[in-house]
Amino acid sequence: MTLAQMFFIYFAVSMTSLALLVISARNPVNSVLWMLALFFHIAALYLFLNAEFLAAVQLILYAGAILVLFLFVIMMLNLKDELKDRKFIKGWPIGAALVLGIMALIYFPISKLIHGPLGQYTIEAIKADTHTKALGVVLYTEYLFPFEIASFILLIAVVGAMVLAKRRV
Amino acid sequence: MVPLNWYIILSAVIFMIGVAGFLIRRNLFIMLMSIELMLNAVNISLVAYSHYLQDMKGQIFVIFIITVAAAEAAIGLAIIVSLFRNKQKIHSDEIAEMRG
Predict the structure, then answer these.
(1) Which residues contact A130 (CB under 8 A, 6 or more apart)?
(2) Contact (CB, 8 A) for A28 and A67
(3) Which of A84, B34, B38, B60 is the most exposed place for a label (fewest CB within 10 A)?
């Protein structure tokens, strides 16, 4: 077993246990904090896969923006009474059984995975003109129209969030 | 060298944990966080494929998924805020206005 595989096993074990902690924490604030640790691990995994720009985006956007939004809303609402209630819905064994079944179903195709044809972005090619530039060239030429649609989705989210959360006057 | 299979299995495990959290928890915040968990699991598999197949398309998709996740979190939290303002509770199994 090489050093890289040992690092990967550490990440796999800690990410799985952090994900389990996220969905089993009683208090949503604890859940958000476990999620923060999980996002740091995911960013480290992206570094592992030579995706520096995405690791930075993961930390800035997910850990910096989305989780802070979650924390603000959780602390804004007063959830003292909710914490004493039961955590799971009544039919939770059915849900757990369903998940295990789908997991077994997913495992078989993964174990017979065959690679597709390789593309042109080898590690050397990315190193030559940096990861951010390589990503940006593809994003702003080939995927320009989806990029515009993404900005439109964000505009709809901004307007929709304000309309939904405003007080009735 | 870590085999590609390992990344895909890790991604599948985290995705299924997210599905489990969405199905069995009652708290709407944690259900929303489970959705984020699922989107992150998909991102891991896309980046892993992108690295192993030496293609940038997977990472472009990750950028779009992060955009959609941010929009989804904002809208979802706004819905929770307005729901809490009207009903004073955020449990998924006590919300049955639409008789669904």
Answers:
(1) none
(2) no
(3) A84
User: How close A106 gets to chain B, by Cα (Å)?
Assistant: 7
Of B61, B88, B85, the C-alpha closest to A142 is B61
In chain A, the residue whose alpha carbon lies closest to the alpha carbon of B25 is A88
B3-62 residue pLDDT tens = 888 999 999 999 999 999 999 988 889 999 999 999 999 999 999 999 999 988 999 999
A96: nearest CB among B5, B20, B78? B20
B81, pLDDT greater than 80? yes
pLDDT digits (tens, 9 = 90+) for A90-131: 888 888 899 999 989 988 888 888 888 888 888 888 888 888
For B69-96, what is the mean pLDDT? Answer: 86
Measured from the Cβ of residue A101, the count of other Cβ atoms closer than 10 Å reads 11
Read out DSSP for chain B? ---HHHHHHHHHHHHHHHHHHHHHB-BHHHHHHHHHHHHHHHHHHHHHHHHHTT-SHHHHHHHHHHHHHHHHHHHHHHHHHHHHHHHS--BGGG--TT--
Backbone angles phi, psi at B89, to 5 degrees: -150, 155
Nearest residue of B to residue A160 by CA position?
B75
Mean pLDDT over B58-80 rounds to 93
Taking the CA of residue B36 and the nearest CA in chain A, the distance in Å comes to 9
Which residues 41-100 of B have a C-beta within 8 angstroms of A?
43-44, 47-48, 50-57, 59-60, 62-64, 66-75, 77-82, 84-85, 89-93
Q: Which of A23, A48, A119 sits opposite B25 (nearest CB)?
A: A23
